[in-house]
Amino acid sequence: MKEKLRIFEKQDGVTVYMKALKGLCLISPLVVFFVSLLPLYAQETYSVQRAVLTVYRDGVVHVSITLLVDEYEPQIMLPLLSPPERVGNIIVLDENGSALDYDFSGDNIAIYSLGSKKVVLEYDTDGLTYKASGLWTINFTAPFELTLILPENATIMYLSGAPLAIRLSDSRFEMDLSPGSWEISYELPVQLPPTPPPPSPPPPPPEEKGQAYLSATTIGYMVVAIIILCSATIVIVYLRRRRIEKNLGDEEARVVRFIRERGGRVLEAELRENFPHIPRTSMWRLIKRLEKRGVVRVRKVGLQNVVELK
Fold first, then answer.
1. What gap in Å lies between CA 257 and CA 245, rounded to an integer?
2. What pTM value is reported for the model?
3. Which CATH class is domain 228-309?
4. Backbone φ, ψ for residue 247 (5° rounding)
C-alpha cells in the first residue's frame, strides 16, 4: 500500500510539473510579444520631420532638427550627434516658439515636451570635425536621415558611402544621408586678405587767395554742421534709450545696466553667471525681448553668443 502511495505521489508531482511547463509555454509568446512592442512604442513618441547639419569654415557644425511629437508624452529622448561637453547654444522651441526645458542623459537630450505637437532643437558643436594637413574631415553617426551642408566652395575629397542625393546650391554641396556612420573629407580654398584701397591723391593747391578763403569758410561751416548733426544724433539716441529703459522690467533693467558697466558687450554665459537666480531659458527669453525692442543685438562668435548694447 505504501509503495502504491509513493508511485501515486510521484506521478502526481510529474503531472503538476507538466501542467506548469505547459502554462509557461502558453505565456512565453505573450511576454515576447509585449516586450517586442516596447521599442515600437518608444519610436512612436516622435518622428523626425527634418534634420540639417550646416558646416562652417571654422569647423563648427550647426544642428537643426524638427520633430513631430505626441502631445500626451511628458518627454522625448533624442540622441546627440556629439558629446554634451562639446555642445553649445542649445535652443529648444515648440510650435508656438516657446522655449522648452531639457536635461542631458548620457549622450542623449531629454526634452520635456508635454502638450507640444512639434519641437525644434538647435545647437552648435565643434566635436564632429577636425583638420589635418589642410584637409577637413567630418565624422559622425546619423541616427536618422539628415541633410549635410558643407561650407561654401568646398571640394569633396572622400566619401565613406553613397549619399541618397547630392546637389550644389549657392556654391555649397548639400547631401541627403541615410542612417549610419559617415566620414566625409573636404578642402577649402585659401582666403586671401582684402587688398587695401589705393592712397587718395593730394588736394590740389589753391589758385587764388579768395578761393582759399572761400574753401576755409566752407570747411568751417561743414565742421559746425557736422558737430550739430552729431550732437543731435547723440541727444536723440540718449532720449530714445531713456524712453526704452523706462518701459523695461526690473530684471531687464538690471541686465542692461550690467552690460553697460562691462563696456556695452558681454557673453551670454557671463549673464547667466552673474544672474544665477534667472533660469537658463528665462535668460534667453529676456535677451530676445531686449533684442526685439532694439536695446541689444546678439552676435554668434564661435560657440558663444555675444550680447551688445545698440
1. 10
2. 0.52
3. mainly alpha
4. -90, 0
| For the chain, domain boundaries | 46-187, 228-309
Cell of 243: 524712453
What is the C-alpha separation between 54 and 52, in angstroms, rounded?
Answer: 6
Quick one: CATH architecture of 46-187?
Sandwich (2.60)
**121: exposed, middle or buried (C-beta count within 10 Å: 0-12, 13-18, 19+)?**
buried
Mean residue pLDDT of the chain comes to: 82
Contacts of 271 (CB under 8 A, 6+ apart): 255, 258, 259, 283, 287, 307
Cell numbers describing residue 30: 505573450
Summarised one tens digit per residue, pLDDT across range 249-290 is 888 889 999 998 988 899 888 898 899 898 888 889 999 999
3-state helix/strand/coil string of 214-259: HHHHHHHHHHHHHHHHHHHHHHHHHHHHHHHHHCCCHHHHHHHHHH
Quick one: which of 72, 78, 106 has its CA closest to 92?
78
